[in-house]
């Protein structure tokens, strides 16, 4: 602990050369060379206010305890704040205010506080004081603070007041403290407090129309098979969007004055701090919808116009955890089932966030969960419960990482291990070691295609010979929306697309069976006007071969590996998608949409 009480360490001063970013003047960020030709220590020495020994003492203190150099010099008695502030004012090009410069009318402070959307107590806690200029029409806001260069405070003020010009200023600590005391006393006399605001929010959240509206939104999202609900505030309204089959659809737009009630209700039932609007929060709740229990994870994120809320719906009773329902072509499904029954090795599922990797892993666990083996998972978080499997939740915030959990799992005599994601070298090394000592390991990687998984592991630091020996199969995947069978209409590719498909048919005739059944989306009552209902996977599968083993040892690039496996008839993500569009399972436009970033084999 700082023996000089670190809470009082900053006394209305801040040095830009100790900040990560330059200070904003009048609401704009200045480049470092525009702020000051000299550090504050040199300026004070040049002014004859302190000596070099004083700076040396302050720097030693700063190295040990941290803090601003000017503040430390004052605390050590090298000079007074009264002498320091004019030098800082000149250095930072910030005005230095006295007590007479503050508005005499406390209501001007209150007006600015209320416009920020945060209670008086928050401003007092930040040791900052805002007020609007006398000519409010000019749209200028003044702010003084004990640390006017505090990045979090700068970002908050910028977000809260939008386009209003902000003039930051320096002020003596004693003057600021007296002004904050007067503001606090005014609030106490007025009877308006932070607790009153919290009570008001709770009352809003408990009103019957608000409860009904939030319940209806959740029920509607569940009925439409949405995975997420987005509640997004704007300046004059707020909108509610559902993510359905991976695409956001606007479902509702409401006046801005109803947002606080809806947001408060969501925060209240999900266990979030209803009064905290400055920091992100995470919560959860469980509800029963149409006779099915649904876990809902809630995330709040402060934004310019209020908190953005996202609710993720996770039905507990998921019936789609069956490999045959994921959309794999018959040869791919046969091959995948063969490899997951192997006694040891690593099977990797790759793709970007939202590509269905977790669903594939859970379907795999269901497939091999026959009671004859010990299966343990480590996840963050555990998304779904699987009967007969030991599921462990990693908690990196307390040091319980994937790697640490894996070490503990290996002492539990497991046969099969599922790792939610290989994120770092330590986790990758333990996974490889487990695979080479008789365990089957299933996990995911964030790569765009299958072959990049090998180079990603090597880039992480795993030795190529270990990668080549441990990995058995890599499957890249994407999720494409499935055409609604009630309204899809015949379609036919034209132009360049038609030529590409003709070339593909010549190169890989086995991909296409029977006559083409191209279809396009239309939209009807059954699919809520979207033209699609549900999703299916597009897959790209590569198993280890002697040639690929040698390529990994030689550290060949993914492109060079591609040239090796292509003659063996390996199917790319896009080719798998085109084959499924040929069979009217999805549309060509949808295939191109979801495989746009895929390199392919």
The CATH topology of the largest domain: Rossmann fold
Give the C-alpha Rg. Answer: 31 Å
Query: Main beta sheet: strand number and arrangement?
Result: 7 strands, mixed
Q: Name the CATH superfamily assignment of the largest domain.
A: P-loop containing nucleotide triphosphate hydrolases
Helical fraction equals 25-40%
- How confident overall, as mean pLDDT? 83
User: Which structural class do the helices and strands define?
Assistant: alpha/beta
Report how far the terminal alpha carbons are from each other: 58 Å
For the record, the CATH class of the largest domain is Alpha Beta
CATH architecture of the largest domain: 3-Layer(aba) Sandwich
Assign an overall shape: globular
By DSSP (H or I, 4+ residues per run), the number of helices equals 22
**What is the total domain count?**
4
Strand order, main sheet: write it out: 15-14-16-17-13-18-21
Total number of beta strands: 21
Topology readout:
Blueprint: E1 24-25, E2 28-29, H1 40-46, H2 52-65, H3 69-75, H4 81-92, E3 96-97, H5 106-116, H6 120-126, E4 128-132, E5 140-145, H7 151-161, E6 165-171, H8 173-190, H9 194-205, H10 208-223, E7 226-233, E8 237-244, E9 247-255, H11 259-269, E10 281-289, E11 292-303, E12 306-315, H12 330-340, E13 345-350, H13 357-368, E14 375-379, E15 390-393, H14 402-410, E16 416-419, H15 425-436, E17 440-445, H16 452-460, H17 464-470, E18 471-483, E19 489-490, H18 495-507, E20 519-520, E21 532-543, H19 546-553, H20 558-565, H21 573-582, H22 588-594
Parallel strand pairs: 3-6, 5-6, 13-17, 13-18, 14-15, 14-16, 16-17
Antiparallel strand pairs: 1-2, 4-5, 7-8, 7-12, 8-9, 10-11, 11-12, 18-21, 19-20
